[in-house]
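Let's inspect one such protein example.
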Amino acid sequence: MDEPDAGLGTLTSRPVVFTVPFLVVWLEILGVFHGFDLPDLPLGPGAHIGLR
């Protein structure tokens, strides 16, 4: 997959294949947390960290 004539457009468009699905998955996770009102989910034993 050597592309010696790859320009700036090629180099910037390659990571989009990974970035867009990553963004979609994280937005879905945040949507689930927001939908179930889970910002007050405890992160460990005795540690109640959340937004109020």
The mean pLDDT is 78.
